Every structure is written in C-alpha cells, then in structure tokens.
Amino acid sequence: MKSSIKIGRISGIDIAVHPTWFLAVAFIAWTIASLFEQSYSSWSTSQAWIAAVFGALALFGSVLLHELAHSITAKQLGLKVDGITLFIFGGVSQIRGKYERARDEFLVAFAGPLSSLLLGVVFLLVWQVYKPTSGDPVLLLGIIFYLGLMNILLGVFNLLPGFPLDGGRVFRSIIWGWTKNESLATRIAANVGQLLAWAMFGLGIYRFVNGDIMGGIWMAFIGMFLQSAARSERRAGRGESTGTVVPLRAAIRRTPKVADARDRVSDVMDGIIAHGEQQVVPVIENGTPIGFFTAEDVARFPAADWHNLSVGSVVRRQPLLAVQLTDNALDVLDALRTRQIRYAMVLDGNDLVGVASLEAIEATVSFMNSGGGASADSPRA
Questions:
Q1: How many C-beta atoms surround the C-beta of residue 5 within 10 A?
Q2: What is the CA radius of gyration of the chain?
Q3: How many helices (H) and strands (E) does the chain have?
Q4: pLDDT for 368
Q5: CA-CA distances (angstroms) from residue 357 to 236, 252, 279, 320, 361?
C-alpha cells in the first residue's frame, strides 16, 4: 500500500503500517475502554484505558501473526512475499505469484484463520487457569480474556465463504479443485463475497437505526470495503481488473498449415513439424476438422513406420472447440479449462485462420495483466 511506514522485518518479510492503522487503533481502544468500564466495575477509567490501549495493540499483534501464517506458508510453497501491511480493516499479505494448484491456495488461505483460532484457544486456556474466583480480574487477565474472544471471532469471521476473506479463498480453492476451472471458481467465490458484503452492510444500517451508532457505521464500512474488494476480485478473475481487453488474435498462431487425415505421418513430420513451422497441425477429414496432430501423437511409433501410417490413424480424435478470431481470449481460456482440452481452432467467419493453445493464452493473459502489454483496443488508464 502506498504511504505505508515500514516498522520492521520478520522472517525476511517487511512489516509496515498504513496511516489508517492509527485510526483503527484509536477506535478499537475507545471501544475496548467502554467495554472494560462496563464489565469491570472495580477498574478506574484510567485503568480501563491503559488496558484498552494495550489490548488494541495486542489485537493487531494477533492480526500480524495471522498474516505471518499466510506469508510463511506461501514462502514455503515457493511464492514470493513482498511484505505485510496493517491498515484500518486489519492486515494484508502482499503475496506475489500464481498458485499452481488449488491445494496450495487452500493451505495459504487456511493458515491465517487456523493461527487465529489456535491463538484464541491458548488465551482462553490461560484465562481459565488464572481467572479470579470472585471479583474483577487484574488488567493483564482482562486483556488476555478479550484477546481470546477476539481471536476466535477473527478466525471464524475470516472463514466466511466469500472473497476477499480467507474463507472465500478456501471456498474458491475447493471449487477450483472440484471443477478444475480456476476462473469459474473465482467468479463463484466473488459472487458469494458480494452477497456477504451486502448482508453486512444491511446489518450495519440496522444496528445504526436501532441505536448502535458507531457499531453500525463500522459494520457498514466493512461491508462496503468487502463489496468493493469482491467486485475487484471478480473482475480480476476475468482479467478485467485494469480494463484490459485480451484479444484472441494476440495469443494464436495465424494461418496454420492443415493436414488431411489421409496424409502420411512422415510427410507431416518432415514437411511441417520438423522444420519448426508449427508444432500443432489441424487435421481435416472429408472437409471436417477431427483433431490436432502433434509430435506427441507419433512418439509411441518407431520412426521407420511413419511412412506407412496415415495421420488419421494416429491423431487423437476428441470433441473440438471452434472459436472466432474476435472472441475474448479469457472466454476461450475458460472454455478450454472447462472441457479440459489444450487446443481450439480459430475461425474468421468460416475460414480456419489459427490455432489457440491453453498454454499460449495463459501466457498472454498473464503478460498483459502484469503490465507487460495492453491491446490497442483498450489502452490502460
């Protein structure tokens, strides 16, 4: 985050606070002080405020441990972590890189709430052992009891199944692992996140109207923040976070050579693939596309037999995906992932003009979304 102030480094991870963090500490300390004064009648106002300030700082210490759990797990999985920033709504780990597996995202996302729940249990166990049999607790025990409850709440809240909460990422990783479609999983989790955000916003308004002024405002603000973040995640899941259009023409090989099913394998290998002209050759049989021919298809046959084999006899026939040159590459990527196939035939009207591969589209989308380029159709702001 811009304007953040670096305050230290833990396990090779920079720790910073955003200016809004100071507002959060002040607000939380004020809230805790009021709670302590109501709960512990023997505490003076100054004692309540001292405990509240330490409690607010310790709460953000718990949030930092929560984020460190995310970041350290991510580093162990080979991802890069630019730092952790504490701000008005908690903390955020700047994890760079792409999850290769749904399992990796699950582990990173679940690490944070798990650490909060475990920390909460430890605090409450300490409270249970040392709590007074009568009267109000000493300041330290009052803080420990508060931290126990808040860490449990923090862990449970973050497990709610909606982006951008950790639970939303856990939810997405489960859908991703089930459907094998990361983009679809992102959209579903982001939609759930938006519904959750609107529910929180509505609950905040309800609390405000019924006399809980500050609590209602705070919850409504959190709902607005989650709504905005969920919307951004949904757009990012389609590569729309910066308004970039990813045209399919940027991710295909144009005007490919085509093989007939009756052609000899040796002719296609020697005449097209061996020369490096193209590695994927569309195959036509009686004027109808039937599949794609690659060197992998003939690797199981001795080269001496290629002269006697027809392309049609070795090509892997599968349901084909035909798309238009004007299609959005992101939509084609979704379709390839959903069908679990690697290639699509690209048409301009009725004419075959190219081949789109899953790997080429993924690389192009990643390059454009990382700032490496943008199409002329939609320049970056």
A1: 13
A2: 28
A3: 12, 11
A4: 58
A5: 21, 7, 11, 12, 6
CA angle 359, 364, 365 (to 5 degrees): 100
* 34/281 Cα distance (integer angstroms): 73
Q: Distance (Å, rounded) from C-alpha 102 to C-alpha 77?
A: 12
Helix (H, G, I), strand (E, B) or coil at 369: helix
Task: Please give the average per-residue pLDDT across 51-66, as a whole number.
Answer: 94
User: Length of the chain in residues, anyone?
Assistant: 381
* CB atoms closer than 10 angstroms to residue 61: 13
- Dihedral sign, Cα of residue 195, residue 200, residue 204, residue 210: positive
Tokens 């290639």, residue?
343
CB 261 within 8 A of CB 315: yes
Query: By the 8 A CB rule, do 352 and 254 touch?
Result: no
Segment 279-330, tens digit of pLDDT: 777 787 887 777 777 777 777 777 777 788 888 787 766 667 888 887 877 7
Sheet holding 13-17, edge to edge: 5-10, 13-17, 80-87, 90-96
- Which uninterrupted H or E stretch holds 324? strand 322-324
Q: CA dist 239 to 242, 246, 328, Å?
A: 8, 8, 10
The dihedral through the CA atoms of 369, 372, 375, 381 has a sign that is positive
CB 354 within 8 A of CB 336: no
Q: Which of 102, 101, 98, 92 is nearest to 70 (CA)?
A: 92
- Full-model pTM: 0.60
Tokens 């489960």 correspond to what residue?
A: 174
At 251-268, the pLDDT tens digits run 676 656 788 888 887 887
Q: Which residue segments constitute the domains of the chain, with CATH numbers given?
A: 5-237 (no CATH), 248-369 (3.10.580.10)
At 4 the three-state DSSP class reads coil
